Amino acid sequence: MLRMPLAGLVLCLMMANTVSAADTTPIPLATRTPIERQYNVVYAEVGGEKLRLDLARPRTGGPFPCVVCLHGGAWKMGSRKDLSEPFGEVSFGIPGASLIEVLADRGFAAVSVSYRLAPRHQFPAQIHDAKAAVRFLRSQAAQLRIDPNRIAALGFSAGGHLAALLGTTGAAEDRVFGGTLFPHVKSDVACVVDFFGPSDLTLYSQTPGIEEIFFRPLLGALFQDNPTVYKKASPLNHVSADDPPFLLIHGTADLVVPIIHSERLHKKLRATGVESALLSLSGKGHGWSGEDMIQSTDATVKFLSKHLSEKPQ
User: Is residue 58 predicted with pLDDT exceeding 70?
Assistant: First the structure.
């Protein structure tokens, strides 16, 4: 949930130790693909506030499978620029490239999405915005050269929480989670990549300091005063058999979002019959960098490529 400095970062993809079966064989970096970018695209306006996204995709061809990327920052900090602007000397294997640029190099249209932040905007505003972004992209698919039937959600920390909600709250729950924008366009996603996102917010009910700092601004109450909203905001409580495949990535030494969040979500997804893989990184905390980041980029791309090509919505 915490937004880390860009050098070390809540963005760090990772891999190392597998808890369940997943293809983690390294693949060569793609030859640098000519890509094009569109920044500051307004996808919605709510209460006079314009919501924007940044997009990168291969310059020619399409329609492309699309990855909707959601930044971290405890639902009250962070920016889509965390995922659409370069950081460090080597980002995900390509020097000077942002996450969405690296994904574009691998043949995806990748979109970094802004969403309304707490405490000014309380839950479910954030998932309303994430779903509105998916609907916008689907409604503008032809113009954007994306395939409306192949859209994935990917997020880090708080963004991982929102990505997981995108995957677990389908059309049947859109009355609560869908918002009012583009109501006749579906917000389903074909697969989810969740990097150390909290899945059960009720686990924080025994940590009053964290509740006060992070969850009262987001949910408007402490757990003891309104347990219902904590349960409603927890992806774990919305798992169903028709959810898309999940890839969960987590550090075993994460003190901000302990790995039990991903372990419980992984267990429930599999028990419900949903395909789920959990990659855990021994001794790592809430984000990391280096070779693990580069290796896990390959694992992530393989997961996305498989499910955006073989399991359309």
Answer: yes
pTM assigned to the model = 0.88
Q: Are strands 246-251 and 94-95 parallel, antiparallel or unpaired?
A: unpaired
Do 146 and 111 touch, CB atoms closer than 8 A?
A: no
Is pLDDT at 292 greater than 90 in this prediction?
no
Using alpha carbons, list the distances in angstroms from residue 221 to 105, 178, 184, 229.
43, 22, 32, 8
Judged by phi (left if over 0) then psi (alpha if -120 to 50, else beta), residue 107 lies in left
Q: Does domain 17-199+234-310 have CATH number 3.20.20.70?
A: no
CA 250 to chain CA centroid, nearest Å: 13
DSSP 169-198: --GGGHHHHS-SSSTTS----S-EEEES--
> How far apart are alpha carbons 49 and 61 in whole angstroms?
33
Could you read off the pLDDT of 224-271 as tens digits, one per residue?
Answer: 999 999 999 999 999 999 999 999 999 999 999 999 999 999 999 999
Sheet holding 64-70, edge to edge: 17-18, 276-281, 246-251, 192-195, 146-156, 64-70, 109-113, 49-58, 35-46
Three-state DSSP at 247 gives strand
Please give the single-letter amino acid code of residue 172. Answer: A
**Residue 216 contacts by C-beta under 8 Å, 6 or more apart in sequence?**
119, 222
**d(Cα 60, Cα 57) in Å, to the nearest integer?**
8
Sorted by sequence, the CB contacts under 8 Å of residue 253 that are 6+ apart come out as: 283, 284, 285
Q: What is the pLDDT of residues 111-168, one digit of tens each?
A: 999 999 999 999 999 999 999 999 999 999 999 999 999 999 999 999 999 999 999 9
Taking alpha carbons only, the member of 203, 290, 218, 288 closest to residue 249 is 288
Dump pLDDT digits (tens) for 71-100: 999 999 999 999 999 866 555 667 788 999
Cα dihedral 52, 103, 81, 187, rounded to 10, equals 30
Give the domain ranges of the chain: 17-199+234-310
